[in-house]
Specification:
The complex is a heterodimer of chains A (about 250) and B (about 100). Chain A has helices at about 5-25, 35-65, 70-75, 85-90, 95-115, 120-150, 155-165, 180-185, 195-210, 230-245. Chain A is mainly α and about 250 residues long. Chain B has about 100 residues and is of the alpha+beta class. Helix content of chain B is about 20%, strand content about 20%. Chain B has two helices and three strands. Chain B has helices spanning about 30-45, 70, and strands at about 10-15, 20-30, 50-55. A three-stranded antiparallel β-sheet of chain B has the order 2-1-3, covered by helices on one side. Chain B starts with 7 loop residues before the first strand and ends in a 23-residue tail after the last helix. The chains are: A mainly alpha (about 250), B alpha+beta (about 100). The interface between A and B is medium-sized, with 14 and 15 residues.
Chain lengths: ~250, ~100
């Protein structure tokens, strides 16, 4: 794998995390527990999908084979998506969704902050905008994690079970494959394994305020980075890709 | 979500080019921090402004709609309270 192929692969991977989580959040539109959160989750979904668009567009340019953002978002098979498993997990209840958002946003906040210093000029530009958006996601989701943990008996139980269900998926955020290693060595993308300590600290701080314990994970769940997904992902893709598969090239 | 957990808040936004915060609507939120986030999410997503004030609706003292007549009607026929009966000297120009 040469430097260019490695960058394309790693950009598509980054785009996939954002597209899939954005799609999951968008599933709340019209279904949130309150109107305020309905808009808030749709706003965050649009931030993530906007970031995915920028990343895919750039991936297509670097690749130089004529694939645009739509081709990358809609016209790949399941095994050709490399998002972490965590972002494809079904939304569950509001506690699950907010905790997943918090886990991902804390990770991406550090990652975008590092990417602002990337040797890749386009990535610096994308990161400069994204870091502002993701900082709000951290704040919004973090405030909810605290309030649910320190809220009613029911809300505390729900956020606790969300942590028990989701924490096993967080390990995959910090894995490095051969393509990413090439990009790290080239100075274009940050090394996620170096973001782990600060991520752990941020999670611990908020969990402390929320009277939550960070779950011990016996068996971390991974596979998405290699294109191996959970059953739910196929259903997500059928929904996400339906229009472009049924009406190829449709635009509006 | 019950009213006791999420009271009502009034939201005021200052637009980018405006001087005053203007009332734009209301929302439900558990506390001031979440109310501020909700105000940002609900009322500034189309670049409506760059400053937000919020206040809990119960803290606003409002005039009684039933007393509208006695409060406001007496001012109707007192046009002499408007400063529009002065000759403005030419050198002042347009006011």
């Amino acid at each position: 794998m040469d430097t260019r192929e490695a960058l394309v692969h790693s950009l598509i991977t980054l785009g996939d995390d954002h597209l899939i989580l954005g799609h999951r959040l968008s599933e709340w539109s019209g279904h949130a527990p309150m109107l305020e959160e309905d808009l808030s989750m749709s706003n965050m979904a649009l931030d993530l999908i906007g970031q995915a668009r920028n990343i895919y567009t750039y991936a297509g340019e670097v690749e130089g084979k004529g694939r645009d953002e739509d081709a990358l978002a809609y016209l790949r098979t399941e095994r050709e998506y490399y998002n972490v498993l965590m972002v494809e997990r079904p939304n569950g209840d509001f506690a699950h969704t907010m905790l997943r958002q918090f886990y991902f946003a804390v990770y991406m906040q550090a990652s975008w902050a590092a990417m602002v210093e990337s040797k890749d000029e386009t990535l610096r530009g994308i990161a400069g905008k994204a870091v502002k958006e993701i900082s709000y996601h951290v704040r919004h989701a973090g405030e909810w994690v605290v309030r649910m943990g320190d809220g009613t008996e029911e809300s505390a139980e729900r956020i606790k079970s969300a942590a028990a269900a989701l924490h096993r998926y967080t390990n995959e955020l910090f894995t490095v494959n051969s393509a990413l290693q090439i990009c790290i060595d080239a100075g274009s993308l940050p090394d996620p394994s170096k973001l782990r300590d600060s991520w752990n600290n941020s999670i611990s701080q908020v969990f402390k305020q929320a009277f939550l314990e960070v779950p011990e994970v016996a068996a971390p769940q991974e596979g998405g980075r290699d294109g191996r997904h959970t059953e739910d992902f196929g259903h997500l893709l059928s929904d996400l890709q339906y229009l472009q598969r049924t009406y190829p090239g449709q635009k509006w | 979500m019950s009213e006791s957990f999420t009271p009502l808040w009034e939201v005021f936004i200052r637009s980018r080019n405006g001087l005053d915060h203007k009332h734009v609507g209301s929302l439900h939120a558990a506390d001031a921090t979440l109310a501020m986030q909700a105000a940002r999410d609900v009322y500034t997503r189309r670049e409506e402004g760059n400053s937000i004030w919020i206040v809990q609706s119960k803290d606003i003292v409002a005039s009684d709609p039933d007393k509208e007549a006695e409060n406001f009607d007496p001012a109707v026929d007192k046009v002499y309270r408007h400063p529009s009966f002065y000759e403005i000297p030419d050198e002042i120009g347009h006011m």
